[in-house]
Amino acid sequence: MHLGTEGFQEHARQALKDEPLQNALHLLTNEFVPRRVAAMQALGDPEALRTQARAVKEQAVAQLDTYLEQFADNLDKLGAHVHWAHDDAEARDIITSIAQQAEAKVIVKGKSMAAEEIHLNPHLEELGYEVLETDLGEYIIQLAEETPSHIIAPAIHKTRQQIASLLHDKLGDPYTEELTDMTQIARRALRQQFLRADVGITGVNFAIADTGSIVLVTNEGNGRLSSTLPRVHIALMGMEKIIPRLDDLPVMLKVLTNSATGQKISSYVTMITGPRRAHDLDGPEELHVVVMDNGRSNILGSENREALYCLRCGACLNVCPIYQNIGGHAYGWVYPGPIGAVLTPLFTGLDTAKHLPRASTLCGACREACPVKINIPHMLLNLRRQSVSRGGAPAGEAPLFSLWAWVMRHPGLYRLGLKLARLGQMPFARRGWLGKLPPPFHSWTKSRDFKAVAPQSFRDRWQTTLQYEQPSRNGAGGGHHE
Amino acid sequence: MSSREAFLARVRQALQTGGQSHHAEAAPAENGEIVPLVTEGEDLAARLQRELEGVGGSVARVKHVAEAAQYVTRLAKEKGAEVVVRWQSDLLDTLEIDDALRAGGANVHTASPASEAEAGNRRQEMRDLLARADLGLSGVDAVIAETGTLMLTAQPGQMRGVSLLPPVHIAVARTDQVVATFADALRAVRQSGEDMQQNLTSCISFVTGPSRTGDIELKLTVGVHGPGELHLVLLDEPST
Known about the structure:
heterodimer, A: Rossmann fold, 6-stranded parallel beta sheet, 4-stranded mixed beta sheet, 22 helices, B: alpha/beta, 12 strands
């Protein structure tokens, strides 16, 4: 189960001490980030692509009602069933009743964050269904009875040895640390289940309004198997997955796979347009598309609407200095990282998740990495403001910041303050940094260092020397630094 | 369960409350593709080969139908293929490959279209065959040069499982089926008839290389669910 968001600070502290996790995160940072940067560069004009992708999402969301209707009408024409779920409970009930009608025993699942969001697996298992995750990472997580720690690489926090033991213990195959062998063990085990399964459940990467198609983007082929072999296919989607036109797909696909894994395209892109047709020799007899709100209309009506543009690519996680250090589980809910720090309070309520929007340096790396240019730092600030206005700030914070603001408005006092600080910091400063401050400033340095006041302020340097220096001759305006 | 109307009413309500002037009108790019990865005048077949090989697929360029058939037969033999399931398509039929494969010791089964009445039994039969097939042999609807991607539609004779269930997938294409970009491939679908939903078929699989995963320590491994090997035989002979 998820750790819960309230203990964020404690979970983060524990994550920092978790050595396997730290190694895995190191790997993630070193692998994914350069891959994505190189891949986006190779696109020629990544900026133009991002602009277009953003515009597509803006339009889709701004006229979401129209596109949802068009999408549903097109699915009706194809003989697919469309279901509307207001919240997680409704979504679970809809899926359960489809499984009941199909007299299902075994259910296979492709990777779906939306299914994680509604805790679908435990629910179906409680009702006696055999539910199998089929994405290798998700399968590993399921065998370990854990939750995913990364949107794209769910088992990134587990080492090869841990996974090898898990496969050996749970499936009874001989122990091996050979990746190929481990993969084949999983392939054999899961293939049997695919052939037995009555129902396949997948997520949706894009829902195309003008054709009624759903698009699945995968590398392993589990999405294809889940939507091909079982008699019934259920696709669960957040309502914001809509894109208006088939013509939007090439661009959206490109930014998604490049941002997620640095691939020009994933191994498999599956575009499903209705259930199998009369003469098809395979494919599901029934297609059910479950369109889910589950808090999204609240976001749509709020100042944080652009959170709905998210493609779930995970690029913001990989570049985030906080995620890079604490991993996904510490965030306590389905969506980790910078976008998780926005989505979690929006979905589950700010009161229990107030620490998440604060777990950011506001460095802006997430916004820069985002394929649809979501302004995550701005939304984090929105949420912080909301949290403070509801009394969510620590008691000492407001008076201290009021004092700071007051001093900033009085230059004489500010200069005096600097002088005092220079004297006062002497016992604490080490190489220009303050690692530990006494009350009432101690809470600031509990989890970060503070830059010590410089021996000479910029103002003083300007007055005495800087203003007399000649601008450098090489390069217009380029300052020369010693 | 929420009714469609109640669901959409909430969305409309939220759109009004939100009320921000977010109404960017994204004009879809001229041809759905603002930055094609291929350059003008580029040799598309060569590009296709480079891209597909780059993601672990293999590409064989052949000059004649006979050469294509030989290549497939040799590969099947190398893999020790006992059960081969293939699409029924004009191109594969012209290869006259079934006898050659059989001579090599393989059982060849063709996913030939069935009447609606027979389809039920036929489906079960093909499914059982595919579950133990060693090799899937398909044609393509198009091949996309910029990414090395096969486009496979689901039609009578063209089963999805052929390119999905067996551990080895061989696809045969003619060079005149190569298009430059993903958007070009979609355009070809659009031009194949008035009814877009009809043209899209129940499923289009875009396949780029073997099945792959990085889920264990981000190390690339192939063949986790789909085929671990993908071979494209590119026939350089104009269609007759």
